[in-house]
């Protein structure tokens, strides 16, 4: 099951430390959404106002102004930040700290194979 990885100095990062409480909560909720849905950092614009209770548009604008999030399609030309598409927002450098959707898919596949192999061996033991 995918999880969100937060560095223990996350709250002290200069980009995060200066955020308002509302923007901070929107940011964390957005990252949680990305982890749960393995989006590599993309958040549908249509989903943003439901990421936290009492969403306020200025909180979203604050994240964009502070380059904590980007407008989809803009990107920032780092390897750990996807470009995204129109109609999305992108969490800056999400993939610097979190596994990609491809990584999670490979892990799910590898675990399924490992479990199938274990079951096959158990069935062989029981048959002999
Ligand atoms: Zn970025």
Query: Briefly, what CATH class of the domain at 10-98?
Result: Mainly Alpha
Strand proportion, as a percent range, falls in 5-15%
What is the CATH third-level topology name of the domain at 10-98? Arc Repressor Mutant, subunit A
Task: Say how many strands there are.
Answer: 3
Q: Span between N and C termini?
A: 35 Å
Which runs of at least 5 residues are low in confidence (pLDDT < 50)? none
Q: What is the number of helical segments per DSSP (H or I, 4+ residues)?
A: 6
Structural class: mainly alpha
Bound molecule kinds, no repeats = zinc ion
Radius of gyration over alpha carbons?
19 Å
With strands numbered from the N-terminus, the spatial order across the biggest sheet is 1-3-2
The overall average pLDDT, rounded, is 95
Largest sheet: 3 strands, antiparallel
CATH architecture of the domain at 10-98: Orthogonal Bundle
Q: Which word captures the global form? A: elongated
Helical content, roughly? 40-55%
Order of helices and strands: HHEHHEEHH
């Amino acid at each position: 099951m995918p999880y969100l990885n937060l560095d223990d100095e996350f709250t002290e990062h200069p980009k995060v430390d200066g955020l308002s409480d509302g923007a901070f909560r929107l940011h964390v909720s957005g990252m949680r959404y990305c982890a749960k849905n393995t989006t590599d950092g993309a958040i549908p614009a249509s989903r943003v106002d439901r990421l936290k209770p009492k969403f306020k548009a200025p909180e979203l604008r604050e994240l964009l102004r502070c380059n904590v999030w980007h407008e989809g399609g803009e990107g920032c030309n780092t390897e750990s930040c996807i470009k995204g598409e129109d109609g999305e927002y992108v969490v800056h450098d999400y993939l610097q700290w979190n596994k990609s959707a491809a990584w999670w898919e490979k892990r799910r596949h590898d675990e399924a194979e490992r479990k199938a192999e274990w079951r096959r061996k158990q069935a062989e033991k029981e048959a002999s």
